[in-house]
Amino acid sequence: MRPAIFPLLPAPGCLLLLLVSWLFSPARSEITSLDSGNIDDILNNADVALVNFYADWCRFSQMLHPIFEEASNVIKEEYPDKNQVVFARVDCDQHSDIAQRYRISKYPTLKLFRNGMMMKREYRGQRSVTAIADYIRQQKSNPIREVQDLEEITSLDRSRRNIIGYFEQKDSDNYRTFERVANILHDDCVFLSAFGAISKAERFSGDNVIYKPPGESAPDMVYLGSLTNFDLIYAWTQDKCVPLVREITFENGEELTEEGLPFLILFHMKDDLESLEKFQQEVARQLIGEKGTINFLHADCDKFRHPLLHIQKTPADCPVIAIDSFRHMYVFPDFSDLSIPGKLKQFVLDLHSGKLHREFHHGPDPTDVAPGQPIQDLASSPPESSFQKLAPSEHRYTLLREKDEL
């Protein structure tokens, strides 16, 4: 009889080690590759999607790939439902149509989507697994604070923009629409809600949404449209949460610079709210039609001393109004001229026509010189742009210099 042959088996300790490794090694996450055929379907069905727009030849994109994948692994364990959180990527060389659609101007760009809608603010945090995972957890947290007593409303921080919804019940189409709006705009406003008996005093004729603007004496504004019409309530809320005149800080400077519009900036001392109010009123009165051609901003004189020095000003000269075209900076002649009808608008129109730049190099236009007064050809050097330095760093992104590169 021939002896039986048995295969060699690992020692029991090795078997146990192999089994433990198999059970506790996290499954590698597959990053969803997007193309023109699947992008709308995938993004529209995702509660939250973080999309990496990259190019294979970009070294910053190559550095981000393993970090992005590992962050996806971490989040997948916390949110296993495939539609809760999606990590996806777009090869912009292969899909230039998608890159153009989302106006990608640098690699890699991380953009956040909610139910198919791209959020205004892209991810600009640290390129680390922990930071990206924390960012997604923050996006998944409830953006609405539930009020347990209407007395809480009286102690709100009135330096912030507050949107308050009063609902009969949480399980309603009205509240779901409100929640969807809050998910998109929670970086710009504080959202609160009250339900049932607590909210009854504020529900004279049904569910109700109000806006409390900054300032202790500022009157409330009531939303009068349909609470189930997302487009209407989103447009109304965005108008209240995103002011016509925004504050520029070192934190949002890169984001504002990337919008590509020149800046019309009021430099004022932080506690000088009177000058800010005058500027806001005149921008709304004279320049509402220029929205989309120039960004209206205000800046703290103390924090932005360097740009002031560029235009030969100091905080002691504030309030000061200037335009930064991203090539040069131009100063509005006198803040006291702000209330002269059409003066601020003409300043902006002179930027668009090239007159501001021309006059820096050649003195006043002939049409602006009084009869008999000699025309002088005054060569000069307008101050260089200061805020352009807040643009995305070339040590963090591959910047596309020419728009047709996509």
From TrEMBL:
It is found in: Endoplasmic reticulum lumen. GO terms for cellular component: cell surface; endoplasmic reticulum lumen; endoplasmic reticulum membrane; endoplasmic reticulum-Golgi intermediate compartment. Coiled coil: none annotated. One of its GO terms (molecular function) is protein disulfide isomerase activity. Pfam families: Thioredoxin, Thioredoxin_6. InterPro entries: ERP44, ERp44_PDI_b_1, ERp44_PDI_b_2, Thioredoxin-like_sf, Thioredoxin_domain. Residues 1-29 form the signal peptide. SUPFAM superfamilies: Thioredoxin-like (SSF52833). One of its GO terms (biological process) is protein folding. Residues 378-388 have a biased composition (Polar residues). The keyword Chaperone applies. Residues 362-392 are annotated as: Disordered. Residues 18-141 form the Thioredoxin domain. Keywords: Chaperone, Disulfide bond, Endoplasmic reticulum, Signal. It comes from the Eukaryota. Mediates thiol-dependent retention in the early secretory pathway, forming mixed disulfides with substrate proteins through its conserved CRFS motif. Inhibits the calcium channel activity of ITPR1. May have a role in the control of oxidative protein folding in the endoplasmic reticulum. Required to retain ERO1A and ERO1B in the endoplasmic reticulum. Forms mixed disulfides with both ERO1A and ERO1B and cargo folding intermediates; the interactions with ERO1A and ERO1B result in their retention in the endoplasmic reticulum. Directly interacts with ITPR1 in a pH-, redox state- and calcium-dependent manner, but not with ITPR2 or ITPR3. The strength of this interaction inversely correlates with calcium concentration. This is Endoplasmic reticulum resident protein 44. The gene is Erp44.
